[in-house]
């Protein structure tokens, strides 16, 4: 039996202020949590969140650039993220891909640079509704995964997040069977294209309208190793989702 520690990321996106995030942090600091937990904070609050959050909880930036410094207005680098004590970054989120036009190639370059500079990466992949309906889910997610895998040397620093784009913020959740099917195929892809050891150890988490009411059944799936949670990570039910595997 392969034991992969349950991993739950909270992606706060462009939400929260010092008051509301401070209250959420207090809830998380005092809760009994049975998973690895990493919260993705807006960049402007990374220092604040890291200073308030209990050391057992991780903090992530929601994005970074592919070089250490320079004339890149509005961007932040892994070196800056590390400088405020933060050790994680979310890369390739569908909103970065589809709202801001980030390409697979750029996401691969960012992944390489983040890992080279000591950050751990939550790397996001997932198909859009028209791609699922056209029957090309596997083709899309395998292509996205390949670009990430080509830029990873140490897989212990990477969590893969499968997020069907049609389920993000829509209230639609992939059924537990749909999630398990893609996770199983992703793990098989990693086994074939990386190694069996990495396939057995890498955590593949699910994102897409995960809530307190959907988390238990999703968590029971063999290849669902946790969640990347959007809106619900700003609510008290986040604790319930973190403990979905208990």
Structure description:
One of its GO terms (biological process) is gluconeogenesis. Its EC number is 5.3.1.1. Belongs to the triosephosphate isomerase family. GO terms for molecular function: methylglyoxal synthase activity; triose-phosphate isomerase activity. Homodimer. It is a single chain. The chain is of the alpha/beta class and 246 residues long. Helix content is 39%, strand content 16%. The protein has helices at 18-30, 46-52, 78-83, 94-98, 104-116, 129-133, 137-149, 176-193, 196-201, 215-219, 237-242; strands at 7-11, 36-41, 58-61, 88-91, 120-125, 158-162, 203-207, 226-229. An 8-stranded parallel β-barrel has the order 1-2-3-4-5-6-7-8, surrounded by 4 helices. Strand 1, helix 1 (18-30) and strand 2 form a beta-alpha-beta unit. Helix 5 packs parallel to helix 7 and helix 7 (137-149) crosses helix 8 (176-193). The relative contact order is 0.16. The model has no long low-confidence stretch (mean pLDDT 96).
Fold topology:
Layout: E1 7-11, H1 18-30, E2 36-41, H2 46-52, E3 58-61, H3 78-83, E4 88-91, H4 94-98, H5 104-116, E5 120-125, H6 129-133, H7 137-149, E6 158-162, H8 176-193, H9 196-201, E7 203-207, H10 215-219, E8 226-229, H11 237-242
Parallel strand pairs: 1-2, 1-8, 2-3, 3-4, 4-5, 5-6, 6-7, 7-8
Helix pairs in contact: 5-7, 7-8
